[in-house]
Design goal:
Layout lengths: L3 E2 L2 E2 L9 H23 L4 E2 L2 E2 L22 H8 L2 H10 L33 H21 L2 E2 L2 E2 L3 H18 L2 H8 L9 H14 L2 H23 L10
Length: about 240
């Protein structure tokens, strides 16, 4: 039987179309709760050469009495919230606007659709600026990944070193596959032949952009797991294994 609302059938689809939006709600809610808790905790973010990505770059100043993560998390958070893929994900999952293809939302919006041209959705246009800010944070994450290979006794490789390196790589793939990056390298060009280097970059970024959803999800898990690993080592729950 088709799902229905007071305004008529929700959809005639018989497949489990609701699974994807449900999983999205579960994962994004869980990540939001965890990230908020860790950002406000203000402890267990640094151990040895390892620094949690939630606290990078680490800004410690006397006038700021709260968690240092709050000073920098606005950049990557804003980048993800305004991301083109994540917009589709949470519009469908949380707002049911609409929840899936060929599935009508809980409330009929016929004749009322304005896209992202009105407040507050028009604020999504700042995505490109969050991209620039997140790129600065990403540079620090690569520095942290490099620093993670240098211990008190010199160069070495620990499990944490690999975790932070992989995290930086995943976040890089998510960033460079972004639509804003694609526009940055190839936008405002009338003739690609006049700029062959930018054309090659545009084609490369466009190929990555086709899998932007994949990089969005895997980098989300990666950054959370990287932070969790640092916290577990910092609290003594697990021991970081030195491979070299």
């Amino acid at each position: 039987m088709a799902n229905t609302t007071t305004e008529g059938p929700l959809t005639l689809r018989r497949d489990a179309w609701w699974v994807a939006p449900l999983l999205t709600v579960i994962v994004l809610t869980a990540f939001g709760i965890y990230a908020t808790w860790r950002a406000l905790e203000g402890r267990y973010y640094e151990v040895g050469p390892y620094l949690s990505p939630f606290y990078s770059p680490l800004i410690l100043v006397d006038w700021w009495k709260f968690s240092p993560a709050i000073l920098i998390l606005w950049a990557p958070l804003g980048f993800r919230v305004t991301c083109y893929y994540y917009r589709k994900a949470y519009y469908r999952s949380f707002f049911w606007s609409p929840p899936a293809c060929a599935v009508r939302g809980l409330k009929s919006r016929q004749g009322k659709y304005t896209g992202e041209t009105r407040f507050p959705y028009i604020l999504q246009n700042v995505h490109r600026y969050f991209f620039y800010a997140a790129t600065v944070v990403l540079a620090f994450l690569w520095y942290d990944a490099f620093k993670a290979f240098f211990f008190e006794d010199g160069f070495g490789v620990g499990v944490g070193s690999i975790v932070l390196l992989v995290n930086a790589a995943l976040l890089t793939m998510y960033s460079v596959s972004c639509h804003s990056c694609r526009h940055l390298v190839g936008g405002k060009l009338d003739i690609f032949s006049s700029c062959p280097t930018r054309y090659r970059l545009w084609r490369w970024v466009s190929a990555l952009n086709e899998h932007h959803m994949f990089w969005a999800w895997i980098s989300l898990f990666g950054v959370a797991l990287a932070d969790l690993y640092v916290r577990l080592v910092a609290t003594g729950t697990i021991i970081d294994v030195r491979l070299i």
